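Format notes (please read before filing issues)

Several people have asked whether sequences and structure tokens are stored in separate files. They are not. Every record keeps both together, in the order shown below: the sequence lines, then the token lines. Line labels are part of the format and must not be stripped during preprocessing.
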Amino acid sequence: MRAAVQLRTLFTVTLLIVASLAGTACKKGQGRPPVGATSKSLADSADQIIFGQRTLITDRGLSRAEILADTSFFFDENTRIEMRKVNGTFFNSAGMKDALLTAKEGLYNSRFGVLEARGDVIITSLDGRRLTSPKVHFDQRLNQLMSDTSFVLTEPNGRDIRGVGFKPSAQCEGWCRLGSRSLMRQLRIAVPFALTLLSLTPAMARTQGQRECNVELAGVRTKGQITTATTIIRQPSGRNNVWMGGGVDAICGGTDQRLLSDSLEQYPDQSLVVLIGHVHYIENRIKLDADRLTYYTNEERIVVEGKVVGRTPGGTRFTAPRAEYLRPAIGIRPRSRLTAGSRAKVWLSPADAGESGRDTVVLNADRIVSDNDSLVYAMGKVTIERPDLLASADSAFMDNGSEFMQLLIQPVITGVGDHTFTLVGQVIDTWSKQKKLTRVLARGSAQATSKEVVLVSDSIDLRLKDQKIDHAFAWGPSRAKAKSAEQNISADSIDIAMPEQEVKEVRAIRKAFAESPPDSTKIVVTESDWIRGDTITARFEKIPAITPDTGMRNVVREIVSHGTARSFYQVAQSGLKDKPAPPNVNYVTGRLITLTFQQGKVKDVHVQDQAIGAYAEAKPDSARVPRDSTTKATKKKPATPPPAPKKP
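Then the structure lines:
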């Protein structure tokens, strides 16, 4: 008896773990299972292939099993999984290793709830018990475990229990071997799997009774009279086709679904229900209004067409010419999925977006997919309007639970408010908290533009506070460049502190270079003033603008260069005020160079350690020397040019 109980637990955990592999699949487009597929052709027809798949299974936080598959092939919206070289390790309730499973192949079909382990199936417990069989079949919906092939159960004392096939039987009230009753009693004790399996999966047991929509008419009354007319025609299968007109008010028996329309058609043999005219579909998860609804009950798939309007309990609303809603159902899919096309528009409510305010997010795209009311995928000319930003891209992904959004293919984000900014790149990720933007990351040819600075690099990371940029980081192989009215700075990476979206400090790290235009009103500009170093720190300040009506302007106050520092700047000649003249030039090197500015122009230069410098004064222009008005100008003949050199 003890051996039978342990083997029963072993089989129960085995089936639970292998069946749960279906939960690792990512949903894809619908398709039919390949006909006559073999192991050599599965890769050509599979929706998805995973090599070296590893799945950890837990129950109430306790590790129960680890399943390894050399290769897994996914078909039919990833509801059918073909596995090759399956190995499993199972753990008991104390977390200790309990048993091992090996099989050449495994098949799980979540749509029909069917599991098969095939090819030299071996289950071995640590106390020495061993079960071998070519194939084991489990029907999840019927709670039936069976086999039509041979099996051998070997106990630690060497005793073998052999048979050919077993299945449930009312006569033996348990699991019985086919074709022979000599081992029937032993098998009744050894393998009663179904009840134990359900005890380990209570959620599955609660939903096991779900079934196709069986229309139950409540009737539509006008002035106290039922106006609904019904026509029923019995089919050869024994099921009835139903036509209803004059107003329909019905429910799907045993579910939370309610159907309202002008007319209804039901074809049970095709698992099809059609609603026409003023359609209203209601359930706990969603409400759908449309001109026409087609319900494929065996697939739990609902297609609505014509002026479609959908609503969720949280307040999210969408409109589209056509939409498809996939209901969650045991054996079909674990989560709901809504697809709206033809320039669908979604008003995402604050309740669904993570905040109980009044502002909403407006999403518009050629096609929008909502996965389990949480994950949103948008494709084709996507536009997003939020209280704090406007965004556009070719594709977008939104996780409403974590408030994460990703924009792909020519994405653009524009901040909203007094301090606007624009960010572009190949991929843009955003993070929010309580629906307020906190971080924006652009990757690939990124550029951020604000009133204060233009930042260009491979990657740009903006941190925001109160809808304003508070900090900016830029880095990448192509180097980072920050451009402002007063300074242009480049380096391998740049860190900009800009509280209230006003530049206060810029740190350029590794191979840093900063340049600024000299005062062109005083000197003849030949090149920009510049400073180099391993690291450059520039600090800015606010000063009154040139014209009183333009307020304040941001100018550089100090630039500090660290490590192998060099600077070149130009100074106007003294005593010349009428028009620009060639400048005096100052060039210095050292370990640390500090430039201080006044009104945005170089005032002082301080050099520390290893200081070397050169100062060159411009030759005064004689044309600028004032002449004595009493002196008469003497006219001189122009000098005769020297003869041109003769060619050899």
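For reference, the curators noted about this record: The longest helix spans residues 2-19. The CA atoms of residues 239 and 268 lie 7 Å apart.
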